[in-house]
Amino acid sequence: MMMIDGILLIDADNAFNRINRAVALHNIQHICPAMKHVLINFYRTPTRIFMKGEGFFELLSREGTTQGCPLAMAMYALALVPLSKQLQPQCKQVWYADDATGCDKLEKMREWFDTLCEIGPTYGYFPKPPKCILVVKADKLEQAKKVFKDSGVRVQTEGSKDCGIEINTEGTRHLGAAVGNPDFKEKYVKHKVDNWVSAVKKLAAIATTQPHAAFSAFTQSLQGQWTFLSRSMPGVSHLFQPLEDSIRHDFVRSLLKREVNDLERDMLSLPARMGGMGIFKPVEECQISSTNSPYISAPLVRLIQRQTFEFDPRELAEEMKTLRKDVDRESDDRSKAKLATILQYAPEELKLAVQAASEKGASSWVTATPSFDHGTILHKGEFVDASYIRYGWNLLNLPLTCACETSFSLQHALDCKLGGLRIIQHNEVRDTLAQCMRDAGYSAVEIEPQLQPLDGEQFEYKSANKDDEARSDIKCCGFWNNMRQAYFDVKVVSPFARSNVHLKPAQLFKNAERSKIREYGERIRNVDHGDFTPLVFTCAGGMAPKSHLVLKRLAEKLSERQNIHLSVVSGWLRCRLSFALLRTTLLCVRATRRKKIACDNNIELAVAAARMDY
């Protein structure tokens, strides 16, 4: 750094629309043969642009890249490779899209800038001096004025950018971060934090009526902004404390309708797969991101420092992939250690709830983007209830007693058979799985098929179902083996039940699967000559091992049939079942239960006996 006088930030005029398309396509055939065919097919004919206004007309664009084209960035980057190679000997440089940056001695940067202005238009790159900024060390300011005085542009030092190159010694914004002295960086970060605090407060206001939408906007969009900043600006994490205060006291309070203590705030900051909500703590995450970023980007930094174009892209990709795996592993270990510390001091209710929420598939509703079209949105009551169940908190505004005259609680709502709500939950899961089997191409799918009647057959277990009217939940021909019937039976259990609270999830699933196998397995295998698989789920969204196998098989068939990547289909299946279990669990809690009233509904008899007028 002692050999560097400053950095010159170049921006181009209307860059993507002015790139020389003919020159670019000619050069790409030699620079990147792997992409020449697709880019030539995309850009060899003029792009049709339809203009809407007083009169509808069409323009043919013969230059630049096309807005919205998925290959536009690749096309633009490859088009500028010959230009950057010509400039390479003159000055240390780095390019990102149309933003070129020179970093060297002032005289070298001046020579580099003059050459860029001279040969850049040949490739369709037109530097725009009013958008260029030169940041220099304080003791180099006067020298910078002299070096760039005869550059053909007027030098501005008062901060104006109306014309000429702006020269300053403090710093400037660059690619979403800041470069310059510590005071400028701190001022820049504080300004960004103030804007984010304002955005968090606006989301908090939205969260009072649309908590699911506000939560999704925060976790999937807003918090990524300060994560990006922290990666490129180390040593500023302490400046994010006002943001953490606003998240905790404004956003979380509006989102969950309650204050959270330190332990609960740490729990919410964990990833969803570990029972958290992914509402990260800015100060902690910024410290981690500023450490991880230089580690992952080290191979790219070495290439920039060497100023070489000769490298193996595959080797670079593999090296960065390995570094990213290291970071992911460390992040996973750090989250697990944090979770262990939380559970060490957590009350029993929170321990049990987090254990259930950490099961694979139980957090799909947390990470899914709200959508009316795909049924992945919760109204404000459902979102709050789902969050309270997730962490074992007492639900708001529950009735004191049930219609069955028993004290009402979450577990009673999941046990009470009055109103048939438990049957609705069972049937919803059954119907969802049956429909997925049909979508996967299994045409012979039957709901509640009757099993073969018994003629004196004996079974090993006393709990085996020997009823002549016995039925399983689903029958599917060819699911496991060609032309062989596969039978499935669904069971939804509650990890919060008194008989289950002392069991670990693995033991709970094992007991439930064993119970179903004893009830149906031997009969279906020996009498119906079919395969039997129990489908066990928890009301929190967890799945037993055999259920995972069934979903994996379904995902493979759907992936093959619809030509979609297996991981995408697997995520969709888990999400669909997660919402089916969640909605029916909330239905058990909030739906109205009424006692059956003994009443004769024979209308004709009632009218005649009571002499009703009509």
Topology readout:
Elements: E1 6-10, H1 15-18, H2 21-31, H3 33-43, E2 47-51, E3 57-61, H4 72-79, H5 81-87, E4 93-96, E5 99-104, H6 106-119, E6 133-136, H7 141-147, E7 166-168, E8 171-174, E9 177-180, H8 182-207, H9 211-232, H10 241-256, H11 262-268, H12 282-296, H13 298-306, H14 313-345, H15 348-357, H16 364-367, H17 380-390, H18 410-415, H19 421-439, E10 445-447, E11 474-477, E12 485-493, H20 505-526, E13 531-538, H21 545-562, H22 566-590, H23 603-610
Parallel strand pairs: 6-7, 12-13
Antiparallel strand pairs: 1-5, 1-6, 2-3, 4-5, 8-9, 10-11, 11-12
Please outline the major beta sheet. 5 strands, mixed
Tally of individual helices: 23
**Unreliable parts:** 153-163
Question: What overall form do the CA principal axes indicate?
Answer: elongated
- What's the total count of β strands? 13
- Class derived from helix and strand content: alpha+beta
Overview of this protein structure:
- By secondary structure, the chain is an alpha+beta fold.
- The protein contains 23 helices and 13 strands.
- The strands form 4 sheets. Strands 4-5-1-6-7 form a 5-stranded mixed beta sheet, covered by helices on one side.
- The longest helix is centred in the middle third of the chain and has 33 residues, at 313-345.
- It is elongated.
- Mean pLDDT is 88; it is low at 153-163.
Give a quick summary of the entry.
This protein has about 625 residues and is of the alpha+beta class.
Task: Summarize this structure as a short list of keywords or feature phrases.
single chain; 614 residues; alpha+beta; five-stranded mixed β-sheet; four-stranded mixed β-sheet; 23 helices; 13 strands; 51% helix; elongated
